[in-house]
């Protein structure tokens, strides 16, 4: 077993990053796992010409003072490139990446009733144990239905 955590968060979009930040702040031993190579969730995966948010800022940003205090959006409805830059800025301010395992797709999760923990496995064979699992996969993720 390579890791034993209090909480494992799956997904590096807005909800996953927020959960990582708050749980870490509360003292939990927490890691975020994401299949992508960078923070951003849907904004990491989908950045095509014309892609932008459909909710105006500040509704589409973190309500964490050390993030919003100094960040300035260039548009009311920012595009995907600005969202990617925003996630890089968030990472610089909150140092999220130190607790993220990128390029790590979870392919198996099994709950051990007797021991009361989750055992998860990544596509590359890496295994991790966690007491709690938060699946912050967002609405744009592809469903994975196990056999």
Written overview of the protein:
By secondary structure, this protein is α/β, with parallel strands linked by helices. Helix content is 24%, strand content 24%. It has 4 helices and 6 strands. It has helices at residues 14-25, 42-45, 65-68, 80-94; strands at residues 3-10, 30-33, 100-101, 106-112, 117-122, 127-135. The longest helix is centred in the middle third of the chain and has 15 residues, at 80-94. Pfam families: NAD_binding_8 (PF13450). Its cofactor is FAD.
What spatial order of strands do you see in the largest sheet? Answer: 3-2-1-6-5-4
Global Rg: 16 Å
CATH topology: FAD/NAD(P)-binding domain
Oligomer: single chain
Secondary-structure element order, as H and E?
EHEHHHEEEE
Which word captures the global form?
globular
The number of distinct helices, counting runs of at least 4 residues, comes to 4
Segments where pLDDT lies below 50 for 5+ residues? Answer: none
Largest sheet: 6 strands, mixed
* CATH class term: Alpha Beta
How does the SSE layout of this entry go?
Blueprint lengths: L2 E8 L3 H12 L4 E4 L8 H4 L19 H4 L11 H15 L5 E2 L4 E7 L4 E6 L4 E9 L12
Parallel strand pairs: 1-2, 1-6, 2-3
Antiparallel strand pairs: 4-5, 5-6
List keywords for this structure.
147 residues; alpha/beta; FAD/NAD(P)-binding domain; FAD/NAD-bd_sf; monooxygenase activity; oxidoreductase; FAD-binding_Monooxygenases
């Amino acid at each position: 077993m390579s890791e034993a955590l209090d909480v494992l968060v799956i997904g590096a979009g807005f909800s996953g990053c927020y959960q990582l930040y708050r749980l870490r702040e509360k003292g939990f031993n927490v890691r975020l796992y994401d299949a992508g190579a960078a923070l951003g969730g849907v904004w990491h995966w989908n950045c095509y010409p014309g892609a932008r948010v459909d909710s105006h800022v500040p509704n589409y940003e973190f309500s964490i003072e050390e993030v919003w205090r100094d960040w300035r959006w260039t548009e009311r409805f920012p595009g995907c490139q600005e969202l990617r830059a925003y996630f890089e800025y968030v990472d610089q301010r909150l140092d999220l990446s130190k607790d993220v395992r990128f390029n790590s797709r979870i392919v198996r999760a099994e709950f051990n009733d007797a021991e009361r923990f989750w055992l998860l496995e990544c596509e590359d064979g890496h295994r991790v144990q966690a007491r709690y699992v938060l699946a912050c996969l967002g609405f744009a993720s592809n469903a994975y239905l196990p056999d």
